[in-house]
Amino acid sequence: MKFVDKLSEKMVPAATLIANNKYLLSLRDGFMMAFPGTMFASIMIIIQNLPTTFGFAGYLPDGVNTFLNDFFGPVGNATMSISAIFIVYGIGYQLAGHYKQSQVFAGAISLSSFIILLPFGTDKSLGTFIPLSKLGAEGMFVGIITAIVATEIYCRIGRAGITIKMPESVPPMIAESFIAIIPGAAPLFLFNLIRYLFTFTTWGNAVDFVYELLQQQLMNLGGTLPAVLIAVFFTQFFWWFGIHGTLVVNAVIDPIMSALAIENYEAYKSGAEQLPHIINTTFMGVFVNQGMQLGISIAMAFFIAKSVRMKTTMKTIVAPAIFNVSEPMTFGLPVVLNPIVFIPWILAPLVSTTISYFAIAVGLVPRPIGATVVWTTPIILSGWLGTGSIAGAILQIVTVIVMTLIWIPFLMAMDNEYLKEEQKG
Predict the structure, then answer these.
(1) Is 7 a domain residue?
(2) Can you name the residues that pair with 127 across neighbouring β-strands?
(3) Which of 10, 201, 347, 370 lies at a C-alpha separation of 20 to 30 Å from 305?
(4) pLDDT digits over 262-303, tens only?
């Protein structure tokens, strides 16, 4: 336990620092601004592709399939495909809240700054337009950078009092609008200058520059198995110390995983035979450790456990585990700071992730479609929806069995200790 105590002294402050960082918190909460739209789009694309998913598309009249495509298909263009817009506004809004500045105006200035950087095209029939891809995956990273920089400038000028102050008789909303003029003008001018300077480069605009030199490299790195295993390790590791590891790690990897998911979503929506990425938000939400608590609790509660304490504990875990609620096991078993379960707690998700990755890589299971599958969706259904194939559900069953087998020897050791205590008492 001395080793654990020393490790806790080093890791807990670091994790707490990450969890309380205003930029990472703003990123995390800003991404949630896009959640309602992307969730709706995911449901619509799942409904649109139900005949294909369940294998009866060929038995339906052509008119039914056409209706599904025409009615549900365009939803993604107004939600998932332009998610960068929601995220940019959300980051600006959330970051301004940490500075106690106007969140609405900060979000609006961030969004305007982002749009200034976007490349505009022209068409004789359509007029001026913005390519849809720049509002989604390709614009994700430049949008994040723009939102943070624009909001920083806006808030620092506002806090310095360099504003236009109106008399008290002026209505509050009008007064706030005037207060935002100078703080808002500075970032808008800066990003317009950046836009203009990029017209003299080979990229032509800042979006393509950031996408090519930064975002693609991070996506290529973040979409690899080693990178994901590192993320999974630290997620579980922080949870073992009682720190919400999912929130800590996701604050760092969400931009990468979301960009990968949007590219898969766009490819799936267009009917591509091969989706570009194995790993994305859908993969992380469906194949890492989903069902682990359910498999463990069923096995121990109804088949293996001999002690009353273990049986009772595991029976209380079963119901919430169906919906992937892990807290009853994390704090009820408990997992937190329990040296007996440290190895399976870390190892089982790593093994599940690896099995899932290779099963998809060799073509046994389709690549995740990039849709947002709500984390409370029970296993089998979530695997099916996440890949658009029954193979995804079968893969989940396999990984749950493997994870349960990893856990059983360690839980049996705990169960034996509980049984000895009960027999003594």
Answers:
(1) no
(2) 123
(3) 347
(4) 999 999 888 888 999 999 999 999 999 999 999 999 999 999
Residue with the two structure tokens 């990123």 = 27
**Residue 201 shares a structural domain with residue 346:** no
* Range with the largest mean pLDDT of 49-53, 265-269, 358-362: 358-362
Q: Please tell me whether residue 401 adopts helix, strand or coil conformation.
A: helix
Parent domain of 178? 22-222
Residues near 168 by beta carbon (within 8 Å), at least 6 away in sequence = none
* Angle at 369 (CA atoms; ends 389, 244), nearest 5 degrees: 105
Same domain, 212 and 128: yes
Residue 15: what pLDDT?
66
Q: How many Å is the Cα radius of gyration of the chain?
A: 25
Q: Are residues 65 and 184 in the same domain?
A: yes
Task: Enter the pTM of the model.
Answer: 0.83
Question: Residues 6 or more apart from 384 whose CB is under 8 A from it?
Answer: 53, 390, 392, 393
121, 192 in Cβ contact below 8 A? no
Return the DSSP state at 339: G
Write down which residue in 222, 242, 268 finishes a domain.
222
For residues 229-245, give the mean pLDDT.
88
Distance between CA 174 and CA 105 in Å, rounded? Answer: 12
Tell me the three state secondary structure of residue 83: helix
Are 232 and 288 a contacting pair, CB within 8 Å? Answer: yes
Contact between 65 and 120 under an 8 Å Cβ cutoff? The reply is no
Last residue of a domain, one of 184, 201, 222: 222
Question: What is the rounded CA–CA span in Å between residue 125 and residue 123?
Answer: 6
Regarding whether 323 and 184 lie in a shared domain, the answer is: no
Note the pLDDT of residue 5.
59
3-state secondary structure at position 242: coil
Per-residue confidence (pLDDT) for residue 65, from 0 to 100? 82
